[in-house]
Amino acid sequence: SSTMSLSEAEVQSARGAWEKIYVDAEDNGTTVLVRMFTQHPDTKSYFTHFKGMDSAEEMKQSDQVRGHGKKVFSAINNMVQHLDNSEAFLGIVTPLGKKHATQLKIDPKNFRIICDIILQLMEEKFGGDCKASFEKVTNEICTHLNNIYKEEGW
Fold first, then answer.
1. In-domain check, residue 3
2. Is a pLDDT exceeding 50 seen at residue 115?
3. CA 16 → CA 24, 32, 112, distances in Å?
4. Residue 1 pLDDT more than 50?
5. For 32-76, how does the pLDDT look when each residue is reduced to its tens digit (9 = 90+)?
6. pTM: predicted TM-score of the whole model, two decimal places
7. DSSP letter string over 22-69?
8. Which family does it belong to (predicted)?
9. Rounded to a whole number, what is the distance in angstroms from the first to the last CA of the chain?
10. What confidence score (pLDDT) does residue 81 get?
C-alpha cells in the first residue's frame, strides 16, 4: 500500500517545480548549503572541512561545499522520481536517514532547515506557485526521515 499522501496531479506539479531548480543542481545546491551555514552556523560543525570558512563567498568557491550541494540535490532528485512508488521512495530515504542518524549523527531538524531554504529559493526564482507545489514533497521527505530517526532511537 502507498504511504504517500500525494495525488497523481500533485506528483506531476511537484516534478515540474523541482525540474526548474534541478537544472542548475550544483549552483542551486551550493546556494542552499551556503544559506544554511550562514543562517544557522551551528550546522557547519557537522562538516569538519567547512568549519574554518566564515565568508559566504569562500564557501561558494569550495569544492567540498559544491560537491555536497550537488549530492543533496541528487538525493532529492532520486526521491522526486519515485514519489508515485512508495517502496522505491522509501528505498532511497531509509538508508539515507539511517546513515545520517547513526554514522553522521546529524540532528534531524537540519533536514527541515534545508527543505525550507529550498522552498525559499524556489519562491524567489520561480514564484509562489512553484514553492507551493513542492511544499508537500518536502513535508513527505521530512516526515519519513523523522520516522527513521525515531526507529534509530533519536
1. no
2. yes
3. 14, 19, 21
4. no
5. 999 999 999 999 888 888 878 889 999 999 999 999 999 999 999
6. 0.93
7. HTTHHHHHHHHHHHHHHHSGGGGGG-GGGTT--SHHHHHH-HHHHHHH
8. Belongs to the globin family.
9. 27
10. 96
Does any domain span residue 41? yes
Domain count, the chain: 1
20-28 — which CB contacts under 8 Å span 24+ positions? 20/122, 20/125, 20/126, 20/130, 21/118, 21/121, 21/122, 21/125, 21/126, 22/73, 22/77, 22/80, 25/69, 25/70, 25/73, 25/74, 25/77, 26/66, 26/69, 26/70, 26/73, 28/69, 28/73, 28/121
Question: How confident is residue 3, by pLDDT bands cut at 50, 70 and 90?
Answer: low
Q: What is the CATH number of the domain that holds 77?
A: 1.10.490.10
- CA dist 85 → 39, 71, 106, 152 (Å): 35, 22, 27, 24
Q: Specify the DSSP class assigned to residue 84.
A: T
Segment 11-30, tens digit of pLDDT: 999 999 999 999 999 999 99
Read off the amino acid at residue 45: S
Rg (CA), the chain: 15
- Give domain status of residue 110, yes or no: yes
Residue 20 domain boundaries = 8-152
Query: Would you give the distance in Å from CA 55 to the centre of its chain?
Result: 22
